[in-house]
Amino acid sequence: MAAIGQVARIATLGDIDSNTAAVWQPETDQSSQVAGFSGRGNVGVGVEGPNGRYKPDVTSPGTFVVSTRSQQWDEAAYYNPTNFEFNTFVNQTITNSGLNQYSLTVPANAVAVMITLVSNQFSTVPFPTNLPIYVEFQDRPPNPPTIPPVDFIRLGSVSIPPDSGGVIAGIQSLQNDFFFFAVGSTNGSPVHYDLITTIVTTNNQGNFFEVLSNLNNSLSGTPPYFYRYETGTSMAAADVSGVLALMQDFFTNTLHTTPSPGLLKAMLINGSRTVGSYSYAITNGLNFQGWGLVNIANSLPLTTTGKVIRRQLRAEA
Fold first, then answer.
1. What domains are there in the chain, each with its CATH number?
2. How confident is the model at residue 89 (pLDDT cuts 50, 70, 90)?
3. In this predicted structure, which of 74-78, 171-175, 285-289, 305-309 has the lowest mean pLDDT?
4. Nearest-CA neighbor of 134 among 89, 168, 106, 175?
5. 162 exposed, middle or buried (CB, 10 Å; 0-12, 13-18, 19+)?
6. How far is CA 92 from CA 192, 195, 298, in A?
7. Band of the pLDDT at 22, cuts 50, 70, 90?
8. I need a labelling partner for 15 at 20 to 30 A (CA). Which of 2, 65, 309, 316 fits?
């Protein structure tokens, strides 16, 4: 399933042409383009034939769709713009009185930096937790390391903040810059370890999340809030599931017969139509719309008595 764009209902539910927020405009300004973040393209290329399997099957509106909102939904956690970037130095070895030197670049939007030493398959048991980490901002820690010039020393791990010392007063001292650190050892035999650095950054997008939160809350007016906007293949899938449920209901309660899943899928695809300038290309390694946008009126061309469907079923029987 792939999500397709739609004109978003931004100001009120009744005004579908009121998307004046520029940040959402590219995703919601028209209904004939598959969303760039949605699932698209053939799968199993080279495994299930030269071009793989034709996916997605169909498309449906999935961009900025109004959906139900759980009362247990944690808005602050869901919209948390914090990112974690991990980098691992594997199979490191430090000898007695040795000093392994490293450096770490800190972006301007960093809010925390962590350095952790962990055991690997070559480590002795128990893994020593007393390996010193020497941190210095201006130059590589000397051997032997002393304070100063080393700004501070920690055993086994470093976390900035709250760790600080010397000219490193906190994460602000390192933002948009880099610093040095070194791992030492006073163990009598070599120590094998992996070193993991973690840089925590935040996406400062102005009042993006505040505006989105207000839009969500405006759907219900006053608490409790029952609805919110959501985007993606998950929303397109719900649309298509609803169409299939209506088709199955017609078969079951009007025609008093049970359709197979294969029949419903075939009818769904048969009723789909391409949108925009897209054209079918089942041998293409990357397709965007599959068989097109679902349309229940095409999939289930009903008369008031259902004669069209009944005739079709008798002919197939």
1. 2-64+231-316 (no CATH), 82-202 (2.60.120.380)
2. very high
3. 305-309
4. 168
5. exposed
6. 6, 7, 63
7. low
8. 2
pLDDT in the model for residue 315 = 53
Q: Put the strands of the sheet holding 132-136 in their side by side order.
A: 99-106, 177-184, 132-136, 152-155
Tell me the per-residue pLDDT of 94-126, one tens digit each, with 9 for 90 and over.
999 899 999 999 988 899 999 999 999 999 989
Judging by beta carbons within 10 Å of its beta carbon (0-12, 13-18, 19+), is residue 193 exposed, middle or buried? buried
Handedness of CA 94, 127, 86, 163 (dihedral sign): negative
**Torsion angle, CA of 265/266/268/269, rounded to 10 degrees?**
120
Contact, 178 vs 107, CB < 8 A? no
Q: What does residue 299 show for φ and ψ, rounded to 5 degrees? A: -75, -30
Cα–Cα distance list, 162 to 65, 154, 168 (Å): 42, 12, 11
What SS3 class is residue 181? Answer: strand
Rounded-to-integer distance, Cα 107 and Cα 89, Å = 20
Beta-carbon contacts of 243 under 8 Å, excluding residues fewer than 6 positions away, are: 60, 268, 294, 296, 299
Q: pLDDT tens digits, residue range 212-255?
A: 888 888 888 788 889 998 888 888 899 999 999 999 999 999 88
Distances (CA, A) of 86 to 160, 171, 193, 198: 15, 17, 16, 5
Bigger pLDDT: 122 or 283?
122
Tell me how far apart the alpha carbons of residues 306 and 119 are, in angstroms, rounded to a whole number: 69
Give me the amino acid identity at 304.
T
Q: Which 3 state secondary structure label does DSSP give 270?
A: helix
For every residue of 68-129, DSSP letters joined together read: E--TT--HHHHT--EEEEEEEEEEEEE-TT-EEEEEEEE-TTEEEEEEEEE--TT--SSPPS
Helix/strand/coil for 211: helix
